[in-house]
Amino acid sequence: MTHEAGDPVCPLCGRPIPADVRQSLHHLVPKLRGGKGGPTVLLHQICHNEIHATLSETELARSYSSIEALRAHPQIEKFIRWISRRPPEFYARTPGPRRRR
User: Fold this and answer.
1) Which PANTHER family does the annotation name (predicted)?
2) C-alpha–C-alpha distance, residues 45 and 51, integer Å
3) Distance of CA 18 to the CA centre of its chain
4) Element counts in the chain: helices (H) and strands (E)
5) Please, what are the domains in the chain?
6) What is the DSSP secondary structure assignment for residue 49, as one 8-state letter?
7) pLDDT digits (tens, 9 = 90+) for 16-44
8) Contact indicator for 50, 60 with CB cutoff of 8 Å
């Protein structure tokens, strides 16, 4: 699998996001907490899953509504160190249940 120089870059992990890999939009402020219509960022699906497996909607709205804040969270920081060594198309199910809203 190849990626083009113009592929968008995941702001969480810094890897390119080729058009044919699993990806999704993340609302920086959760829709359920007033973020409907607010800013979104394109992420790898695995990066998006990790955010929602780690943080509740309330935590996201209150303290983690920017990429900088997300990247500084200890568990997400650890995930980024791990995922950054994987190829851009890497995907695995995020272990464990999603956090409750």
Assistant:
1) HNH DOMAIN-CONTAINING PROTEIN (PTHR37827:SF1), TUDOR DOMAIN-CONTAINING PROTEIN (PTHR37827)
2) 10
3) 15
4) 4, 2
5) 1-91 (1.10.30)
6) H
7) 999 999 999 999 999 989 999 999 999 99
8) no
